[in-house]
Amino acid sequence: MNEKTFPLDAAALRQLAERFPTPFYLYDEAAIRANARHIRQAFAIFPDFHEHYAVKALPNPFVLKILADEGFGADCASIPELILAEKAGMRGEDVMLTSNATLGQEFATARQQGAVINLDDISHIDFLQKTAGLPELVSCRYNPGPLKDGNVIIGKPEEAKYGFTRQQILDGLVLLRSKGVTRFGLHTMVASNELNADYHIETARILFELAVEVKEKTGIRVEFVNLGGGAGIPYRPEQTPLDYKDLARGIRAAYDEVIIPAGLDPLGLHLEWGRIITGPYGWLVTTAVRSKSIYREYVGVDASMADLMRPGMYGAYHHLTVAGKEHAASTETYDVVGSLCENNDKFAVQRKLPKIDVGDLVIIHDAGAHGRAMGFNYNGKLRCGELLLRADGTVTQIRRTESIDDYFITLDFAALESFDATAKGTS
Ligand SMILES: *Cc1c(COP(=O)(O)O)cnc(C)c1O
């Protein structure tokens, strides 16, 4: 069980919505910091622990700066994400580039910033050397293939596009060493939104065993393993959150069993968690603007799938509460919908909720990761802004709402004026 909370009471939220019209995202700095500290404490049982926050989950530099202040680095997959991490003050090996189908410019930017490059494929070794030169430290992403069952979002590893096979890991590390690389890491990511601690412990064991096999077969001693992201959050109230201490202890038991006897201690333990770091501490706040009664009861809100696409894309559950009606009985059954001309633009389907009146503020929970970041402009929808509730209770706007000018910025209307739509060409 987990209780769905919101950091402001209804009156304070109403005041905030007068200052910043809905829809908006609100993130809770104190809660994000407390969470970061719990993670650091739990994983302090490892000799060398690092969390590289997956920037794609919440690519806002203000939030990244808070995470940097808590000692976290970043995991990036593009040049803009590398720039965001740098702007937030994350430096050198605190930043990782874990990308696939990587372009030369992306490698070059990561090299310039001194970020750790995590290769997705054995062919990237030569490509990296040609495009950016080889750094002293290189990490390789392992795909365990049929060794490991997948989970719902990522699927089966052997069907996943990522990573090296086991033999390629061995061959790749030897090739890197022959080219002068002296420091090595291993990475894998085989889960998404996984709430079962055993799954993550098992993933760690697979990497620990691989590190031992690498040592035995090649003589190469890797300096860290990186378990990637994929730690789940309890989107549904009846689900139970991961217990950091239990999880860390479980991974530590595998470490003691596999790494210590092999003489590989100290080995770094790295994570690239995204969702679990900020997900539960962000909310999408929207206003009920319409209600309609046809074959079902609908509540139309001023946010849409363009602001939060997880329900439409994955059928994902996000808990909804109505400000001021948190304890009211759920007497109604609603579809809560956005205004997109797509019938999957529904934040809730046949959900039991209290009676919602036009003007009510509807709070969509667990939207602090893979929320605003996955937004889009389909149907001419403008993505909403982001607010940060500071630890002192004040609220700072950390991204404004998009304007119509933002939407048109890639178009040249002057060129349109002189564009001859009647010209049919000559050939
Ligand atoms: C998406 C992603 C993450 C973060 O995943 P979460 O589910 O948000 O923890 C980490 N690493 C890589 C390589 C990713 O693609």
Question: Would you write up a description of this structure?
Answer:
- With 427 residues, this protein is an alpha/beta fold.
- Helix content is 30%, strand content 21%.
- Strands 1, 10, 11, 12, 13, 14, 15, 16 and 17 form a nine-stranded mixed beta sheet that branches. The chain has an eight-stranded parallel barrel with strand order 2-3-4-5-6-7-8-9, surrounded by five helices.
- Helix 2 packs parallel to helix 9 and helix 8 packs parallel to helix 9.
- The longest helix is centred in the middle third of the chain and has 22 residues.
- The model has no long low-confidence stretch (mean pLDDT 96).
- The structure holds pyridoxal-5'-phosphate.
- The site of pyridoxal-5'-phosphate has 17 residues, from loops.
Helix-strand blueprint:
Layout: H1 10-19, E1 24-28, H2 29-42, E2 49-54, H3 61-69, E3 73-76, H4 79-87, E4 95-98, H5 104-113, E5 116-119, H6 124-131, E6 137-141, H7 166-178, E7 183-187, H8 197-218, E8 224-226, H9 244-258, E9 268-271, H10 275-278, E10 282-293, E11 297-301, H11 310-314, E12 320-322, E13 332-337, E14 346-353, E15 361-364, E16 385-389, E17 395-399, H12 404-408, H13 413-417
Parallel strand pairs: 1-16, 2-3, 2-9, 3-4, 4-5, 5-6, 6-7, 7-8, 8-9, 11-13
Antiparallel strand pairs: 1-10, 10-11, 10-15, 12-15, 13-14, 16-17
